[in-house]
Amino acid sequence: MERSSTLQLNSLTYCVSVSGMTDPSPTGSLSAHAQDVALLARVASGDMAAMKAVYMAHADAIARFVRSRVHDDAEVADIVHDTMLKVWRGAAGFEGRAAARSWILTLARNCTVDHIRKQARVSLGDTDETIPDDTPDPEAVLGAVQEATRLRNCVEKLPERQRAVVHLAFYEEMTFAQIARIESVPEGTVKSRIHYAKKLLMRCLSLGAQK
Question: Is the entire prediction scored with pTM above 0.70?
Fold first, then answer.
């Protein structure tokens, strides 16, 4: 039976706010991926408890990812909610070939881009993404920095596209292939963005150290 948008919205709000519910997540020796596949299959059948479990497992990661592009907390919350509505409506389309987190963050990216376009705040950037990726692993650069607050401030100053891939690579610990799927770009573009971000971070951190 077709569910209306209003019913979906109200049902989703209820399922993530109700308290005292028994943990609906699968138990046993299933891998995390297998658990996510099972949960999303249940969501596709209209299982509200499974939807709550998916929300609890992924909402924080969605919010962190969205904040790499949108800095208003109310807007971030709206996008997280929109993303979860897409999960609720589109769970049947999840085929299990990729990680559930990658699939959900792809939905989050699409919701974020739609939101930014509607707000007429698209940041096209003016960066050169053709720089070859022939430098050492940028993780070594980030890992060498001890001043987390200063690093975070420098990350926030990155252009939007570089900031997003840095977040996915170093805070969500995703591979280039996973990031490429989420961002809908070739792996080479992801590598170039991280390479360019590393150069900007090095410059920012160097200037900060001189103060």
Answer: no
